[in-house]
Design a protein that fits this description.
alpha/beta, 3 helices, 20% helix, 33% strand, binds zinc ion, Cytidine Deaminase, domain 2, eight-stranded mixed beta sheet, globular
């Protein structure tokens, strides 16, 4: 499946989740529907401390329809940590990091190897 983009509503929801979880992280798995990332499965529980989201993913079963993941960085640094880069290849192709203060453009998308990538935002 070729991923064409991510739904704008989903980006809004991710920013909202980041804000609501702050100063903790949230983590979610993303699913695509007909090539558009449009759904999320929030991982349950509270994650405390920066860069610990990836540990959480170790407990998740992997799904073949998985498009990628999203998690927040309460420190506002929209770059993958070493732990993130180890985790990304195991959970799909596109990985979103949502950073404080969670404004409209406070997110970045990365490929599984941790390189920044542009993904279309679909209305
Ligand atoms: Zn991270």
């Amino acid at each position: 499946m070729i991923i064409r983009g991510i739904k704008k509503e989903l980006i809004r929801l991710l920013l909202e989740l980041g804000k609501n979880s702050h100063p903790n992280e949230f983590a979610a798995l993303l699913k695509e529907d007909e090539g558009v990332i449009s759904e999320l499965n929030l991982l349950p529980g509270t994650i405390t401390g920066s860069s610990s989201a990836s540990i959480f993913f170790d407990m998740m079963p992997l799904d073949t329809h998985l498009a990628g993941s999203a998690h927040s960085h309460p420190n506002g640094v929209c770059r993958p940590s070493d732990a993130d880069i180890n985790f990304f290849p195991r959970a799909g192709r596109y990985h979103f990091i949502i950073g404080a203060p969670y404004r409209e453009n406070d997110w970045r998308c990365f490929t599984a190897d941790g390189e920044p990538c542009e993904l279309a935002v679909i209305e």
